[in-house]
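3.2 Worked example (two chains)
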Amino acid sequence: MTNFRLCVPLFLIVIVSQVRAQHFALSRLFYPNATLRADFMADANMGNNQRYGLSRTSFNALIPLRSEVDVSFNLRKKFDLRARHFLMLANASQINPTLNGTIDPASYKTISVGALMLQASLRDRLWIYGGGLGLTESNETFFIPQPFFWGGAARMRILGLHTQIAYGTVLIFNQKLRLIPVFGINKRLGKEWRVSALLPFRADVNYKVNQWFNIDMIGAFDGYSGGFQEVTIVEKSLHRSNYQHVKFSVAANAHLLGVFNVSLEAGLGTFRQLRTFNSARENLGTQNPGIAPFIGASVRYISSKSKLSSQFTKKLGLGESGVNW
């Protein structure tokens, strides 16, 4: 019992230590919250007298569903105490590429839902499991959706009160199947600095100015993938588009009125590639738009700590986590 009681509060510290930051983290998984975000990337030359730009608006929500604690015995009469926390993820977004300043007909809508389970036990320590599915659909081909799904698991290890790592594997299908190993780290450096990363997707250095304001320096791999239908005089043909870039940015985050996080982000998108495939997945063309500046803004509403999360900790006799909203 002693090891488990040490394990869970440390895990909760990992989760809630960054609730005021607007950057990625496991920080918000115990708090119902919703985010509205808008991004705009300026037009940049990509050859053939064409310029490519991009704008995106999105809505994201995290909703805790259930927390539970159970006791079990195996055939060897070994005791195990297990705690689980379940939550749902939802996303809806609109992606608008632009060609020569005009919105591309192959703009995309995306909707997705998923679930995460956080599990802590005496025998297995800390695990995170997740999965989800969704649809990407072009504005021009509303009845030809492109499905995608993901699933994975990660093991988390506590190396100290200020250092945690996670490692695992994610299986993703989006036009083709990929198996991606992931590695995460959360390291506090002094009272003001924190380094977080979920590789190969994102890395973040956070500087806490005070209780309500912090700054992030971010490097991230991002993009979109979807299908659209090209209509000519001769035929209608289904094409698939895949865009990716690496971005470097700085974000300023303010925690306001106890329930809102407001973030402004600016940076550069580089290492960009835009590829188009036909329905047989044959490459029709690859283009490389130049480096372009981008800006983004988001507002996140974070409710008070959920009753589910409070019950989760009280069942273990741990009390509250001590986060002061």
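3.2.1 Second chain
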Amino acid sequence: MSKRIAQTLVLIIFMLLFTAPALADAVKREFSDLPGTHWAAGMIYNLVGRNWLSGYPDNTFRPDQKVTRAELAAMIAGAAGKNPPPPQSPALSDVSGDKWYFSPVEASKAFFSKDPSLGTGLFRPEDPATRQEAVSAIAMAGGLPDADPGRLQTLFSDYRSILPEYRGIISSAVNKGLVRGYPDGTFGPGGPLTRAEAAVLIDTAFLKEEVPGPDQDIEKILSAVPVKAFSKTPEEFRPVAEKLEGLGNLDGVSLIFTIDEIALKGVENERIIIVFARVDPFKYFTFSDVIFKTNPDLVKAHAEKMASEGSKAVPGKTVAAVIGYSNLTFYPTTPQTFGEEYTGYSSEEGGWRVKRFYSAALALDGSVSDSWVEKTKDGNP
């Protein structure tokens, strides 16, 4: 065999070994354990298509498996476009050059710099990544600075379980809407993160600008507002309520604020904060016939002011301020009294539910992006 033929064979073998998996991954995008109905499938396949993360050789993704720190490092390196040449000698004693994760860990280790173990020369690549470790690393890779950690204490009952090193960057991630707590008011800093959850965090941190926001259609947002459920403001939105102090009176009529968060289109990762300003029931007709009918622009301007001020308390999140009326009555004459377009019988509640929206506005970081005012059948306010 000539030397040239031998070199050609070596080259062919090299290509088969190192390019075939990449080609197979490019062609076969669907994992056997990740159907399109999985809650994170869209985001995971989006990241796979960008070559930011990959599955296992057996064509699985294992979305519910705990993500290791090495896997997280590889995901972050892919998303951040970090792939520098490896150093001559390993900088971390537990990340040797013969491991698959050597290059991605070296490429992204700076984003794990808040981890106390790095100061001892350890990365702990095979350990499951905790929520605080993952949020910190992903937020740093996304370029977020530290923020005042004080707000975490008002949001999470297990605030003291968050290591001091992570509090500033986690506070920034919460402010930007990268991560939220659990329904029971905890953050769970030491809890494990699944591969699917890690992918969703990366998608949110790096592709948030590419995801359509909730400001496409105010009327669709209003149709999703469950006014009968707006009875109490969760503690996490108290900062929003504080920003609205002084806006609870509109031309002599009291507005009662309730603040909560709803999912748009039934998708949990498309959520919006709603400030519902309920008109005083005893002043409904005064407000409707005297204030709104004669000066709808005044009501609209008030909704814009509410949205603008409220959004300043939750940086990075869209706030919808809605001025409206909701009440439950048990009088058969309710449709004639309030108007059939605003009423409907609720068999669940055993009475007539009155629901009306006068005006609404959307704002992000203090800037109003859109506003709406109720129109009559002839198209006029």
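3.3 Remarks
Residues 31-210 form one domain.
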